[in-house]
Amino acid sequence: MEIRPQPGPQEQFLSSDADIAIYGGAAGGGKTYALLMEPLRNIENSDFGAVLFRRETTQIANEGGLWDTSGTLYPHLGASSILQPYRWTFPKGATVTMTHLQHEKDVYDWQGAQVPLILFDELTHFTRKQFFYMLTRNRSTCGVRPYIRATCNPDPDSFLVDWVGREKGNGQGLIDWWIGDDGYPIPERSGVLRWFVNVNDTLRWADTREELIGQYGAECEPKSLTFIASSVYDNKILLEADPGYLANLKAQSMEEQMRLLHGNWKFRKEGGLIKRDQILHLGDGKLPRLVRVVVAIDPAVTATATSDECGIIVVGKGDDGRGYVLDDLSGVLTPDQWARRALNAYDHYQADLIVGEVNNGGDLVERNIRFVDSTVNFKAVRASRGKAIRLEPVAALYERHQITHAKYFDKLESQLCSYDPETFDKSPDRMDAAVWALTELMLGDSRGSTIKLRGT
User: Residue 20's closest CA among 120, 103, 129, 128?
Assistant: First the structure.
């Protein structure tokens, strides 16, 4: 059996000498095979080890996934396998391990590790913190220069692109330079190496390593990175073996077609009640004196990579009568984590009230909060009407420009502008929490709960 890349982007990816190479931009471009082929260049090195990460273990073991696909390649090179952990060992001793980073804290399981080759499958599923922490584990004593390879499909809300930062001239997305303002990869930049350093958590880029060393000194240790775009049309083997796959992509929604078929990193279907141009941002302005502040929670009762997020939104009402969205602290959190995060926000913003939806968690929501702080002002709210109906009066506030966001909250704003109950396939938890907070401050009353007013 001959194992070799297909001509085009797959071969370009496997030939790159970048410290970090990211491959993808559309579905069906041969990304999985490319990722699995990458370690093979070093299997004669007995001390070599590669680790391939997915966000969740089930994504490794799914039918036709990474583990199954590796089984069509690695045995031909004499590799043997075990399932716990998922690991291939080649005749000379080199290994390829497949594992997960389900929670952000899982990166600390790798403290002290030295991994010459780190591979991320679907990098957009991971967080910025996970990626940059694992850079510190990318080191080698086996003679192989440490490097990172990753694949991805477009996701406008991932850390790989930063549309909000780009609008302000300071995009911090890893692949911003390779993606045009229209969201499509720039063909002539595909595969071009650039260099970056991280200065005070801000990425600084240059065309050469020497340029960055000249600016920041030799100790800055620049890294090279490239993005290589591909699409299903580059994967001739797939199109010949499964002609129906292209039809499957074309059968998707417009949003999924734009991302998975056409490789667009910007497109969002925004048919929601709230429009982008109705969301005001504070910018360089100052907040007025806040007369009330509310922390709202739309809780999740589990915390896995596929769980709904827990929405945690902080909103204040100014002495000018306007509403101000102050913070979005949402995330995939355990009940203890979201309770503590909400209470930290309650203290930090000197809030008057925590509002918690109790439809799913029932008494658990208030119990979690009071277990950490029994003195907190808490109000349980129960949804008796649909999300779209609850959103309508809040949308009217945005339409009348009565709501201002203290900064850009890209994921929250995406949910606010795209929520359609007919097509939205995940719970819009950030939006729900924002609606509860704004309803309490701008539209509701405080009957049935004891509210302390700020400054009293």
Answer: 120
* C-alpha–C-alpha distance, residues 210 and 203, integer Å: 16
Condensed to tens digits (0 to 9), the pLDDT of residues 60-71 reads: 998 888 999 999
The total of structural domains in the chain comes to 2
Angle at 93 between CA 91 and CA 94, to 5 degrees: 105
Examine the domain organization and report whether 206 and 57 are in the same domain.
yes
Using CA atoms, how far residue 158 sits from 121, 131, 338, 410, in Å, is 14, 12, 22, 10
Residue-wise pLDDT tens digits, 404-423: 999 888 889 888 888 876 55
Domain that holds residue 315: 276-444
So what's the pLDDT on residue 360?
62
d(Cα 126, Cα 111) in Å, to the nearest integer? 18
Q: How far apart are CA 292 and CA 324, in angstroms?
A: 10
At which of 261, 286, 307 does a domain end? 261
Question: What single-letter amino acid sits at 265?
Answer: W
Give the list of residues 6+ apart from residue 307 with CB closer than 8 angstroms, or none: 300, 332
Extended strands (E) in 129-201: 147-152, 194-199
CA-CA distances (angstroms) from residue 20 to 127, 174, 235, 299? Answer: 16, 10, 23, 37
Q: Which is it for strands 202-206 and 290-298: parallel, antiparallel or unpaired? A: unpaired
Give domain status of residue 449, yes or no.
no
DSSP string over 368-417: HHHHH-TT--EEEE---S-HHHHHHHHHHHHHTT-EEESS--HHHHHHHH
Contacts of 131 (CB under 8 A, 6+ apart): 120, 123, 159, 174
Which one of 235, 261, 287 terminates a domain? 261
Residue 190 in domain: yes
In terms of C-beta density within 10 A (0-12 exposed, 13-18 middle, 19 or more buried), how is residue 240 classed?
exposed
Domain membership of residue 64 (yes or no) is yes
How many angstroms separate the first and last alpha carbons of the chain?
78
Least confident residue range of 14-23, 89-98, 233-242: 233-242
Single-letter residue type at 48? F
Provide the CATH number for the domain around residue 370.
Answer: 3.30.420.280
Q: Are 206 and 194 in contact (CB under 8 A)?
A: yes
User: pLDDT value at position 195?
Assistant: 98
Q: What is the pTM of this model?
A: 0.66
Q: Please report, for the domain that includes residue 195, its CATH number.
A: 3.40.50.300
